[in-house]
Design a protein that fits this description.
CATH class of the largest domain in chain A: Alpha Beta
CATH superfamily of the largest domain in chain A: Type I PLP-dependent aspartate aminotransferase-like (Major domain)
Number of domains of chain A: 2
Helix content of chain A: 40-55%
Distance between the termini of chain A: 57 Å
Number of strands of chain A: 14
CATH architecture of the largest domain in chain A: 3-Layer(aba) Sandwich
Number of helices of chain A: 14
Shape of chain A: globular
Largest sheet of chain A: 7 strands, mixed
Oligomer: homodimer
CATH topology of the largest domain in chain A: Aspartate Aminotransferase, domain 2
Structural class of chain A: alpha/beta
Strand content of chain A: 5-15%
Largest interface: A-B, 83 and 83 residues
Order of helices and strands of chain A: EHHEHEHEHEEEHEHEEHHHHEHEEEHH
Strand order of the largest sheet of chain A: 2-10-9-8-5-3-4
Chain lengths: 389, 389
């Protein structure tokens, strides 16, 4: 038996669009002793995770559980269950992830109506309402916190328009859940999906979902079969809530990590946690401003957990990210889609949403930009970020 | 901030149908520092994992990678990419998992031809050849090591029939990969999927896949769109092999664990590892026989990594499993489908395929069965299992 050198990753501060930094408790949970996926202790943990997710989503929905795939699998689970061929669905698109929903819906033979906003802006509620009322709309879908831009989409008018039309309302909460208010029942959301690697600070690999009774009825009473067996909500419900019918081998260690992340989130409490995300974002804005940098998004539309920062003229954005990663051991994100090359994306999510993270990234940006000939006062920026906390 | 009691699982020896026991190295890998999914160190690890999986599958297929879901997602990825509406596909069914493939293929509007064997037997190659030749067959699918029965399916005649028909050959290697010979290129397999939680002894959550060039052409040149975005092989190839186009957030910690499991598997070497699985199975057979217990499957068709043991008349099989779990801290599996209540399933997979596991489970079975009034000599069974090693 020959020995191979084990992979030993660097310790990088994850301040990109996700994954976010893990807490020590979540890291430890990943390597707890493995149980079988039908073990009685594991079944109890599944119940606990479901109850905790209901608190996090602020919902009574009995179908509230993590599926065994990343956030994109969560999106796919929602559309695959809720869209039938020929269904008219209206999708608000204010970034890459709304566009992805539209692409998948077309693959499922839906009649897709797209309502667009410029990247960096929110979708206009009136435009959504008009599109929803213009036909027999079955489903309305939009992204809450657009990870590609950092825009928080206002929702009440859009949900009201969906309700008037008798359509189901689907919300992408990948980046908002755990970092800002996501009150499914109060908002009137029928279907929501998220990911674990953003504001929950759990390793990527699971997608928390929630479906209302109306959404479950749609999944149960379809004319056409659900095109997936793995993501079929009826089968998932039987494993998680029903007779514990074996469906697939749950990713046990990932569920441990999610349980630990939920312990931390619910232990901290919604309000303190969301306030912490807002305070971290305010510190970042102060530091960026003092460096002479601007955010893409207007202040009232910004997501606290993700900020798109405009790249100054003449600066090679890739070189900055490379330097941050290699010398400062910090990851930030680049732009996606039409924003590629135009913005950096700085995430302050979950365990990473704290002043220490802000000071490290402001210091690193100031140092790197100075070296590239961009005139800025890093000392002043650090004082600005820290000072008024 | 209130504190919640962290979940603390029991240490259970996993000798069921999977998940299997983790080695210390794999457990440690899960909690290594998290990297971003586009980080340069992580991209290098992805290359290493792909190269290692090619060795394990004994293939040159460039598309050989783990998808971000469990083994069932691997099955779904294969059929979703390779089956178009109206395609005639022939599926050999000798257990629960073949039946699952047929169900999914029907959801994808395929014309499904099922060729059945009794649970506990292999599918007859002549029956498969006849079904394949009876129409314009596009795909032939069968399970290699049936996890629900413990039968290893003979393959060469079936593959030959598929080739004669110009059909693609799909193999479910969930339970065989890493514990027995799976030589994709030598066998002529076009598409294969597996899971990490069986003979690789990695936590459940990933499905290694491999696609030949012919299979990739089918996925690329379809008349109907692939009904999935998450599992679209064309998009996955662009992230894993192409321009590293962002597709979804890879389950980073799971990939670490897989890399560690592959280090161990390739460090040990194919032949010694497969021999170890066979020796462990032989020890189990000796111990079971000495306890007066019989296996469901004829010796020449048995999988070494999973054994279906017939429950003696008058014994409550659930009570036995409960006692093994609660007092001996050992998990074994019950029967699935038509074998429910009739068999136990004992897995000796990956890190669990060793004499120590056999001695623990034989001792525990002997003790529990004696207590239930079943006459057996546990001492003799332990000596039989251990003695002739």
């Amino acid at each position: 038996m020959s020995q191979r050198l084990a992979f030993s990753p660097s310790e990088v501060l994850l301040l990109g669009p996700g994954p976010s930094p893990l807490s020590p408790a979540v890291r430890a949970a990943m390597s707890a002793p493995l149980l079988g996926h039908l073990d009685v202790e594991f079944l109890e943990l599944m119940d606990r995770v479901q109850a905790d997710l209901r608190v996090l989503f602020a919902t009574k929905n009995r179908f509230t559980l993590p599926i065994s795939g990343t956030g994109s699998a969560g999106m796919e689970a929602m559309l695959t269950n809720l869209v039938e061929p020929g269904d008219r669905i209206v999708i608000g698109i204010h970034g890459v992830f709304g566009g992805r929903m539209a692409e998948l819906a077309r693959r499922l033979d839906a009649e897709v109506v797209e309502v667009h906003a410029e990247f960096g802006e929110a979708v206009a509620p009136e435009a959504m309402a008009e599109a929803i009322a213009a036909g027999d709309t079955r489903l309305v879908a939009i992204v809450h916190a657009e990870t590609s831009t950092g825009v928080m989409q206002p929702l009440p008018e859009i949900v009201a328009a969906a309700k008037r039309a008798g359509a189901l309302m689907l919300l992408d909460c990948v980046t908002s859940l755990g970092g800002a208010e996501v009150d499914l029942d109060a908002l009137g959301i029928d279907a929501a999906f998220s990911g674990t690697q953003k504001c929950l600070s759990v390793t990527p690999g699971l997608a928390p979902l929630s479906l209302s009774e109306a959404a479950l009825r749609k999944a149960a009473d379809r004319e056409h079969p659900i095109r997936s067996w793995y993501l079929d909500a009826n089968l998932l419900a039987a494993y998680w809530n029903g007779d514990r019918v074996y469906h697939h081998t749950a990713p046990v260690a990932m569920i441990y990590a999610l349980a630990a992340g939920l312990d931390e989130a619910l232990g901290e409490g919604h309000r303190p946690r969301f306030d912490r995300h807002r305070r971290a974002a305010q510190a970042l804005y102060r530091g960026l401003e003092a460096l002479g940098l601007s955010c893409l998004v207007d202040p009232e539309l910004r997501t606290p957990m993700l900020s798109s920062v405009l790249v100054p003229d003449g600066i090679d954005e890739v070189a900055v990210r490379r330097d941050l990663r290699q010398r400062y051991q910090i990851e930030i994100g680049g732009g996606l889609g039409s924003l590629q090359g135009r913005v950096w994306r700085i995430g302050l999510m979950g365990h990473g949403a704290r002043l220490t993270s802000v000071l490290r990234v402001i210091g690193a940006l100031g140092g790197t930009l100075s070296e590239l000939g961009y005139g800025c006062d890093t000392s002043a920026a650090l004082v600005a970020a820290a000072g008024r906390e």
